[in-house]
Amino acid sequence: MEQIQRLYSRFQPEHYDVYLDVNREDKTISGKTTIQGNASDKNISVHQKGLKVNAVKADADDLAYDVDDNNEMINIQLPGSGAVEVSIEYTAALTDSMMGIYPSYYEVNGERKELVGTQFETNFARQAFPCVDEPEAKAKFNLAIKFDEKPGEMAISNMPENRVEDGVHYFDETVRMSTYLVAFAFGDMQSKMTKTKSGVKVGVFATKAHKSNELDFALDIAKRAIEFYEDFYQTPYPLPHSWQLALPDFSAGAMENWGLVTYREALLLIDPDNTSLSTKQLVATVVTHELAHQWFGDLVTMKWWDDLWLNESFANMMEYVSVDALEPDWHIWETFQTSEAPAALQRDAIDGVQSVHVQVNHPAEIDALFDPAIVYAKGARMLVMVRALIGDDALRTGLKNYFAAHKYNNATGNDLWDALGAASGIDLANIMNSWLEQPGYPVVSAMVDEGHLKLTQKQFFIGEGEDKGRIWQIPLNSNYDEAPEIFKDNHVDLGDYDELRQKNGKPFRVNVGNNSHFIVKYDESLLNDILDHSDELSSIDKMQILQDLRLLAESRQISYASVIPVLSKFADSHSNVVNDALYRLAFNLRKFVKPASKEEKNLKHFMDQLSVDQVQRLGWDSKDGESNDDQLTRPLILHASLYAENEDTMDKAHAIFEDNKDDLIGLPADTRVLILSNEIRNFNDMDLFEDLLDDYRHTADPSYKSDIAAALTSTKDPKLLAIIVANFEDSNTIKPQDLRSWFRGVLANNDGQQFAWDWIRNEWQWLEDTVGGDMEFASFITVTAGIFHTRARFDEFTEFFGPKVDNPGLTREIKMDTKAIDTRVDLVEAEKQAVNDKLA
């Protein structure tokens, strides 16, 4: 098996001079990179990928070298070890892979244009220039960039531009940083600027396909976020500027390049006149996530990719900490509960899941590390537990000391625990390593046994799992003082239950606030006590009950049918977090019914009963002064009502469409996708389909594009579904960055599932050639597995993906997703009769 070769041990770069000449017309790059550093051996290697090396020199003398394309290296023979300066001249192709240096395509007034940008994480800097492309190999960089420049175009990078000579843009020397954080872009851009209180220049850049006011929201958030972080971290922002750049083609969501953060347009640009609250919250959390990285990840970087969580988990928590401070009325921690927590709990319950800290043994495994449910969501929940344990004062002190000790260098997880532990006086490493090094999480069972209240912990699995006797140190967060603060045994007896109940005067609960990464299984008497006093529960409490019951039902520890009455109990809630959990669970019931069957009709009737009063209360139109909860809940209940085929709701949506059919982009952003989907599914004609597809091709509004994609993929018409699938490989219609959402939309549509499934099996090689090697590639497998729930589809999935399991970048995903489908099929077969009887 191919192993990772670490090059830094033999050659430690200290400074790079990188000269690049990019010709967009010919799609060629020619470059010269000069590296100053220390050679520990006279035989050194640097990384390259796809570079045609023309010369390697030291002190003007040619050096012997060979290019090892299989291991992405240039092996160089030096006269001796010690201080050395190596110059490498090379050429390369400018590709459309969205990795390395690549062009993004867009239109302005019907004219096709290009904006060239970069994406070097994880190990794609080597596609732009020869380097030791490892996080630990920090160095300083001088960039000089020439391109086939046209009037009005500009170039931007990590550092300010200091001069332009003979068409070459020269930038200030960077601070000491990792190769994957180097970034630049050039083309025809617009920008808006401001300054923080401490003098940091903040700018937002985008193509001129967008209205200038679409840059305003992100500019305001970025400025205030940097000010917040400088105060919270008690460490100044270390660069002179912070640019935020929207790229028309971008595979990831965003990337924290130091001083030049890059984003998908949909995650940076906002129409201030027509954007939903949920979209504003999403953009704000993405911007604050990337800016959290400017310290946590950029100033201090993980030593190797196995500690990727050090970057991502922390930034994922801090995005909520900062937005909560910047926009307290949003109650953004509720979004954490409805997005990060469910994702982590679902994924982490499957046997074979990676731990947060995971070893990397093969180059292809590096990109596979970026499991959003684990490295991002679970890791963030871990750190939320830490914050709750030590408090913000100790957190801030520990972080200040951590940055001071490791700035411009690298760190490991233990370095963070040491800093936070010293600030708090708590042995955090001992507590947190049980969460960091072990996959999965526990279910804490609470029961009254022989009159005593007892707790046990055991690893929780959805589906079959090998019980290895894992024990976690669990912050219990109980509402009874008699429960231990940290539950670190496999069982505990809290004493006589009747006495405890009388003394505390309230139902017994643990994980109050739902901040610790475990779920709770109460016995029947304890659960009924909680439900009998549900009017005393907070919104988070109610959400947590629905969340835990859903997971227990998924694992078949309780009957799915037994959960259905609880949905009705909470159906009148005005809280978005409750309604999010409620409808997540309600829509999960669809897997138990066949489309167009009597059972599905019963489910739709039940969904109508759940939502009808809320639809009556909220309606389609937003109201002046309404709560954030109502704004966020409206799309949930209208979606349920449309699924239920409530005639009044469908007719009202159609009427709104008719009134606005000449300005569909102007439909209210929070309900536009529902109105368009209703029209396509129930009142469709070919003209509307073609008009929307044409709008999709030409609009620059990313939110509108997303709504059109969701609407068109919901059609029932097989002819239209065939047209959609025929466009999957037409990048002028569907960009590769957006293909996954189109594919998922068709696959999730029962009328289109066969079209999409046939396409991915027939066109897998094309898909691999187009987006393979990208960290998003394996997610095509994930979204497929998330939809399939029949034995026939399971068999087809294993037949197709089984032979690909030896691909190191796909191995874990295929194994886990195979298990996930198999478990879901078993659940459906075992529970469908009871569920359908309850719905009848």
Automatic annotation (TrEMBL):
The protein's matches in PANTHER family, at most eight in alphabetical order, are given as:
PROTEASE M1 ZINC METALLOPROTEASE, PUROMYCIN-SENSITIVE AMINOPEPTIDASE-RELATED
Specify the enzyme's EC class, one word. hydrolase
- Name of this protein: Aminopeptidase
Entry keyword annotation includes Zinc? yes
Q: Which residues form the Peptidase M1 membrane alanine aminopeptidase domain?
A: 217-435
Provide the alphabetized UniProt keywords.
Aminopeptidase, Hydrolase, Metal-binding, Metalloprotease, Protease, Zinc
* Organism expressing this protein natively: Apilactobacillus timberlakei
List the catalysed reactions.
Release of an N-terminal amino acid, Xaa-|-Yaa- from a peptide, amide or arylamide. Xaa is preferably Ala, but may be most amino acids including Pro (slow action). When a terminal hydrophobic residue is followed by a prolyl residue, the two may be released as an intact Xaa-Pro dipeptide
Q: Which cofactor does it need?
A: Zn(2+)
